Structure formats: C-alpha cells, structure tokens
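Appendix B. One record, verbatim.
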Amino acid sequence: MAGEARLADLCESIVDCPHSTPVWTDSGVVVLRNQNIRKGRLDLTEPSYTDEAHFAARTRRASPSEGDLVITREAPMGEVCMIPPSLRCCLGQRMVLLRPNRKRAEPRYLLYALQSKSVQHEIGVNEGTGSTVSNLRIPLLESLPIPTRPLSEQRAIAHILGTLDDKIELNRRMNETLEAMARALFKSWFVDFDPVRAKAEGRDSGLPRQLADLFPNRLVDSDLGEIPEGWKLGSVEDDFDLTMGQSPPGETYNEAGRGLPFYQGCTDFGFRFPTRRIYCTAPTRLAKAGDTLVSVRAPVGDINMATEDCAIGRGVAAVRHKTGSRSYSYQFMQSIDAVFARFEAEGTVFGSIGKKDFHAITCVNPPRELVLAYEAFASPLDDRVDVNERESRSLAALRDTLLPKLISGDVRMEDVGRFIGATA
C-alpha cells in the first residue's frame, strides 16, 4: 500500500496568489483564472492578459514555471493543473502555486494524486468557513495527506496515466482541426459566397468543374444583403425540421441509466457532443442520432450534436435539415449565433426562443444540390470527430478507474496490463 506525506513535505514551496485583482489588458502576459482549469487540464482557449508591470508585481514571490502545479482555492475548489513548457504566465485570484520537490515527488504524479478521490475528499471535508464561499486555506492545503510511493513507481504511474491523457489531448486537438475545416468550408460557400465572387470576377473558384457549376456567377441584392443569384430568402421553417423539447414529470428522471439519455438544457453539452448524466423512462420529445441540439433557454444558442437517440426537455430543441444533412445542420446553427444572441439579450428575465420565433428566423436557402455537396465533404470529418470522441471517453473512463487504484496501490504496476485487458 502507499504511504502518506503532507503536501508541504512534497513541495519546495507553496505560494498563495496575490489577493489584489489583476489589471486586465487586451494582450500581454497570460493571467491564469479559475475557469481555465478543469479536470486536470489547463485550457487557454479564452485567455486573459495583464501588462509587464503588473506581471512583475504578481510574480514577485514566485513565477510559475514548467512542472509547477496550480490549485484553486475556491469557486470551484481543488481544481488543479500543471504549467506546460514555455508558458509565461502569472496567477489570478484564488489560486495557489505548488512547486514540487523533485527529490520526493514526480510533478505529474502529484498532479494525479491531487485529483484522486481520497485527496479531493479531504479538500471537501476541510472546506473553509467563509460566510459566502468555501475556501481552501493555506494551512489546510499544506497539511493535505498525499499518497506517496517510491520515485520510480511515481514516474511509472505518471507515465501510464499521462499516456492516456496525452492521447485524449491529441484527439481533442484533432477534433478542433476537423471542426475548423468543416466550419471554414461552410463559411466560404454559404456565408461569404466565395465561389460566386470568384466566378463573378472571372477567377478560378478552385473547385472541380462539376461542383463549381452548382454556383451562379453573380450576386444580387436582398433584404439580407447580397446573395447568390437564384438562391432564395426564406426561414428556418422552410429548410429544417424542428422539434422543441418538453420536460417529462420529474419522477421519471434517474441517474442509473434507465430509459433514454435526457438533456434538459446545455448543462451537459461538450465540445461537440453531450455527456450522459440524467436518463428518462417516459420521454415526451425525442431527438434522433445526428440531430443538432440547440439550447433555447438561458443561454440561447449553445450547440451540440446528438450521438444517439435521446430525450430532450424544454431547454433544448432538435434540428435537422430536410435533406437529412447532419453536418450542414450543425454548421448552419453555428453560423446564426448572432441571431441567437439577440434572443438571449432580449429576455425580460432570462433569454429564450420559442418555436414560432425559431421557425421565423430569416436565412438564405441554398439549392438542395449544394447542401448535399457540402454534406459529402463534411460528413466524413464529423465521422472522424465522433470516433475520436468515443475513443477519448473510453480512455477517460479507463484513466478515472486506474487513477485511484494506482495511487492507492490497490493495483500494482506489474498488474496494470492485466487490469487494462479486463476493463477494455
């Protein structure tokens, strides 16, 4: 079994962040914030910045460097991540910098140990006594009992769990690239009308002849601005089948996997696909696998795609182009985010959009042949995104199963292969 040591004994230093609010700038040095840390990963897709002078002031006691860990003190409490190579950054509020003592703790092992159920339980039990928020106080943080192993075993455990996380991260980046490719083509064809503009100016559209012939060679005026000649102005109702969700009785909900996955709103939405959490045994409205799921209540306009038949509550609508084109449907709904934003902003108490208003959204309706041509390109990309996502969820489940068993010593290193085979 693993031994235990105080967190303070495994670190060279534990440094609380400055308690002052950072001075925010549009560019400069990255400031880490609580929302950037989730499930052991640092996410800087929406970074915040400060200037050099305030960076120097905030790093006077300690400047984060590669291999350091950062843990949140509150809202939420106990989220942890590792500083990656070459990131120049400082800490925002409610964060603590942990610098592992590498003679006693492998940094990535300590990262996983802090995420283990036993340590997270200690963090939860030792919630602070603040009147409005829970706060992980420094003395409690220093005294956290951390399962320890010999350094060689720590490195081996970090390698096993890290390999799983690295593959999950690779899949995530690949999916972002695939998503960007599909979105860029949609924008080029159906928002910017690039092939039409190229033909109007006598330029090569860059498309195969058969595909280029589907686009007209001039733009005409419309109520939405210039649109390709022959394309029609219409509404969402003209081109899409829409199912507004309806919430079943509360007693039909469960978390035990009985019935269909149920999505009441965007709480369980992910990068592309929702995560199963709640199920319903008596669904009243259904979405089909491949339907685009749109949040229609507070907030309006969050988008996901159903990977399977599922039940939808009143906070979600399911949308599919009348051709059945799932990829076109998904990218179209992404493209009208500004329309959804108006409904979000105009709500008297909170934003919402009803069926009538959703149906009436004005849009350009391209020819059916072009929708199907886009689908032929984008659907294989979405298939790959789906495969990557399913693999990542399986890998994450394996990691989450292995983590506490490896950290506690319940699974020995020599048994890992057999354990993985039994759970695969």
